[in-house]
Amino acid sequence: MSQRCCTAPLSISTVDSAVTTGDSIGVTYEVTNTGDVQGTQNITFEVNETTEDTETDVTLNESETFSGQFSYITSDADTPAVSVTVSSEDTTASADVIVRGAPGLVVTNLTAPAAATIGDSLNFTATVTNTGTNSTTQQFNLTVNGTTVDTTTVSLDGGNATTVQLAWQTGAGDDGNATVRLSGGDAAATTNITVAPLTVADYADENGIVTTFGLFDAIEDWREDLIETQLLLDVIDAWRSDKPV
Asked: How far apart are CA 178 and CA 195, in angstroms?
């Protein structure tokens, strides 16, 4: 454009006032040729003084107005705010945009019991942290070998953390190696645990003797399918013998 073109108005007509990281900032602008001859200029879009895009060879007649758009995808590095600028060779318009950190839940320190036996109720603890700046609520599932055994809901403000505890009631067929996973949304943590089968010794007292109480416990576990018939017979034999096992 000539020396007398585009010396006024270049304005940002619309711009997002606040976005969350990962979202796009949309900027609509208008530039007017206030001169008296046709002219051509480039329109530049900057974010924090770094050129992000250019509308090249914008040609306007006298008093003609051009409307255009720019966009910019934000990242975590843009928090807490960025300055967006649209400029021609003659004039500049700027605006500030708040960039909020996206809510991001992270699961760490998933802890399993040191030892487990069939029939135990096992408690698992973990730390859930909101690494973003926005409050968020998420349901978390505790799965064992892919089957959900417990759930909890976590609500956290940005930057806060909490400890969650979920449980798994072991039952028939749960002995062996198990993969335990706590997950919600994109957050997850995994640990492994071995569940031991019941033996005759589990029904003995501190002296290793299977008493009537131990026998009754074995009968109850057999009724609940926690132990096989053979183990119940072994417990009965130990009870009859009244000898340490």
From this structure: 7
Class of domain 10-100: mainly beta
pLDDT in tens, 7-20: 457 899 999 999 88
> Running DSSP on this structure, what letter comes out for residue 158?
T
DSSP assigned state of 4 = T
Its pTM surpasses 0.70: no
> Distance between CA 184 and CA 171 in Å, rounded?
25
Bridge partner residues of 126 (DSSP): 164
CB atoms under 10 Å from CB of 157, counted, come to 12
pLDDT digits 0-9 by tens, 126-174: 999 998 777 889 999 999 999 999 999 999 998 899 999 999 999 988 9
- Closest by CA to 42, choosing from 27, 28, 53, is 53
Instruction: For residues 78 and 59, give the distance between their C-alpha atoms in angstroms, rounded to a whole number.
Output: 33
For 71, residues 6+ apart whose C-beta sits below 8 A from its C-beta are: 24, 25, 26, 27, 53
CATH architecture for residues 105-196: Sandwich (2.60)
Instruction: State mean pLDDT over 95-101.
Output: 89
pLDDT for the residue numbered 20:
84
Q: How far is CA 242 from CA 183, 202, 228, in A?
A: 49, 15, 22
Residues 6+ apart with CB under 8 A from 240: none
| pLDDT given at position 77 | 83
Domain ranges in the chain?
A: 10-100, 105-196, 200-241
